User: What shape does this take?
Amino acid sequence: MAGSVVAVRTGAPLVALTFDDGPEPGGTDRVLAALADAGASATFFVLLTRVRRYRGLLDEVVAAGHEIALHGVDHRALPDLPVEEVARLVRSGRAELEDVTGREVRWHRPPYGRLDLRSWRAVTGAGLLPVMWGPSTWDWKDVSHAERLARSRSGLHAGAVVLAHDGFPGPEDGVDDGPAPVLDRGALVADVLAGYAELGLAARPLGVVAGHGRLVREVRLTG
Ligand SMILES: [Zn+2]
Assistant: This one.
């Protein structure tokens, strides 16, 4: 089965909080402060285009004890690329990230959540597991803070994989996704975490939550 991780089946009161598209100055640093204030930790799916430019920020993420995973060498959607290039990018991306962090990288989140069968094979062939998500904070869209908070709790359960962002990709990452939404990513994370705490849920990296249960996989292939 060409499955991707979508959640963790667990009785532990934990959610797997994940951030994509960093590191980014003004985003990652605020997110890190909000996580530290709440005593929370997370998984950061990073872009190598940004890791190379903002190595100091990545080092801060690692030093704070968060988990590092691969979002991509850049942000181009995998199904749009020749399959040989997908395999080469994922393999070289994993190797470069492990070299930079000195840690094993286990997870890959496909840009835009777009994964076709041949790129699923390339990702898993590189020794990585694709990770999708359940609830998200809608922090890549221009919506209100209140709507983002509501979305972050929609479909939430223990073991949920929550999608958020500490950056926004652009031409330097090989894509044109328009202007970045204007928001204080730290303030959003603080309020999301406060809402989860009211429900008795704490945020941890996917690798930690997975250690408290079993990965739930679903086939989520798109072209
Ligand atoms: Zn992304």
